[in-house]
What we know:
The complex is a heterodimer of chains A (91) and B (171). Chain A contains 4 helices and no strands. The longest helix of chain A has 19 residues, at 54-72. By secondary structure, chain A is an all-alpha fold. With 171 residues, chain B is an all-alpha fold. Chain B is rod-shaped, with a radius of gyration of 31 Å.
Amino acid sequence: MLFSVLINIAVAAVKTLLPGSADIPAQAAQLVRDLIASGKVPPLTHDDGRPITLAEADAMVDAQALEAHAALHAGDLPPAADTGAVGGPVG
Amino acid sequence: MRHGRSLRYLAAVFLAAALSAAAVLPSVGCLGAASSAQVPAALAQNLPLINRLLAKQALVIMTDFFRLATNVRTAVRAVGLPAAQQAALEARFTAFQAEGDKAIEKVRAESKAVDPVLSKIGTAVTPLGPLFEDVAKLARGHGTALDIVIDSATATLDAVLSYAGSAPGQP
């Protein structure tokens, strides 16, 4: 009993000597909040509050990359061979 | 006699205090040593997800830009430029598309980086600027509607570069 009280006193004393050490997780959380507040990062959770997994985020990136490719090539003309304008039936 | 026992008891208490402090201090010392590295470490746990979401957001803006750039080419075709000028524009646009495809894949690859990814997205997207300027130079001056589409595309490209060009929290 006395021993545990002494340990608690010693821990409290050392924590007092190291101000800010208890705030470390809070600082990290604040950095993440700042990133999100900057508008550059969307929320790290779904609308219902579930955290977005890495696999889900990968799928989002892949789907958006496909959409970007499609937007870039939306105005491409079909290849000449497909139009039937060049050449004709062989044989 | 009684005093002797009390003194021994008191000495035992001080000894226990000294021993407990000696046992606790090293572990707290480790916490202190880790304090400077612990913030990035805690943030690093979230960075893989943050990087993916940053890349996805960049790709959303790039998609808007590519749609508008494609609209420029479609509108130029509708206007009907002289054949040589049209061919020059198509050649520039093909080069622009090749660089755009590369940029998309670079951003996709960078999304899986373990360190902050924004500046790398900027590096991937930057080459698109001069290539689109070439397309815009050839396409401008053939109608107000076309010029408006070009202006929109240029503004969206600026948005992509501005998004990727500065880290969060920096001016």
